[in-house]
């Protein structure tokens, strides 16, 4: 469109010239819009540069391989050969992941050797120790032994058996 437009009214035969008014407000709006566009363009350029830098870093950096939760065949063989108890397998695996070494290398480390030997020793002690409730033997003492213990002043646990032994001794003579 031109700056000067000619507008025809449908009902009239005259033509009227309309000129757009130029005000200070429209000029400031236009400059603000251009500033906004410049700022947006600058932000987008910075963002694009950052993405480019990140992509280059990702290409240069070696890809990290997530450690699998399952053990490989070599690791299983190493665990079986070293006779690692099943309760200690997770500890060995965790140590290997922490140190970023294989399970067989972890088993060769002095830290794991010490830990595994201590745990095996604890298991051996626990197996050797009678941890269950112990019962007293249920051996019945004969009458003469019960009477002998009573005369010596020892505590006889079964007073009924002692009374029966005394009764039997008295009736033996008759």
Compute the number of helices: 7
Biggest sheet: strand arrangement: 1-2
What percentage of residues falls in helices of 4 or more residues? 55-70%
Distance between the termini: 150 Å
Q: How much is the radius of gyration in Å?
A: 50 Å
Shape assignment: rod-shaped
Q: What is the percentage of strand-forming residues?
A: under 5%
Class per helix and strand makeup: mainly alpha
Number of DSSP strands? 2
- Uncertain segments: none
Mean pLDDT: 76
Q: What are the secondary-structure elements, in order, as H or E?
A: EEHHHHHHH
User: Can you summarize the main beta sheet?
Assistant: 2 strands, antiparallel
Notes on the protein architecture:
The protein is mainly alpha-helical and 174 residues long. Among the domains are: 32-61; 73-128, no CATH class; 143-167, no CATH class. It is built from 7 helices and 2 strands; from the N terminus they run E-E-H-H-H-H-H-H-H. It has helices spanning 24-60, 73-81, 89-99, 103-108, 110-128, 143-152, 159-172, and strands spanning 5-8, 15-18. The protein has a two-stranded antiparallel ribbon with strand order 1-2. Strand 1 and strand 2 form a beta hairpin. The chain starts with a strand and ends with a helix. The model has no long low-confidence stretch (mean pLDDT 76).
């Amino acid at each position: 469109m031109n700056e000067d437009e000619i507008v025809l009214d449908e009902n009239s035969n005259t033509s009227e010239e309309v000129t757009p008014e130029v005000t200070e407000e429209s000029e400031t709006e236009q400059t603000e819009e251009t500033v906004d566009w410049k700022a947006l363009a600058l932000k987008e350029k910075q963002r694009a540069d950052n993405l480019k830098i990140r992509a280059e870093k990702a290409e240069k950096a070696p890809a990290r391989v997530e450690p699998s939760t399952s053990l490989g065949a070599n690791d299983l063989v190493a665990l079986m050969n070293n006779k690692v108890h099943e309760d200690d397998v997770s500890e060995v695996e965790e140590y290997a992941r922490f140190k970023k070494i294989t399970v067989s290398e972890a088993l060769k480390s002095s830290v794991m050797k010490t830990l595994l030997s201590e745990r095996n020793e604890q298991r051996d002690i626990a197996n050797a120790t009678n941890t269950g409730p112990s019962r007293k033997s249920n051996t019945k003492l004969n009458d003469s032994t019960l009477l002998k213990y009573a005369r010596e002043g020892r505590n006889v646990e079964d007073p009924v058996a002692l009374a029966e032994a005394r009764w039997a001794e008295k009736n033996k003579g008759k």
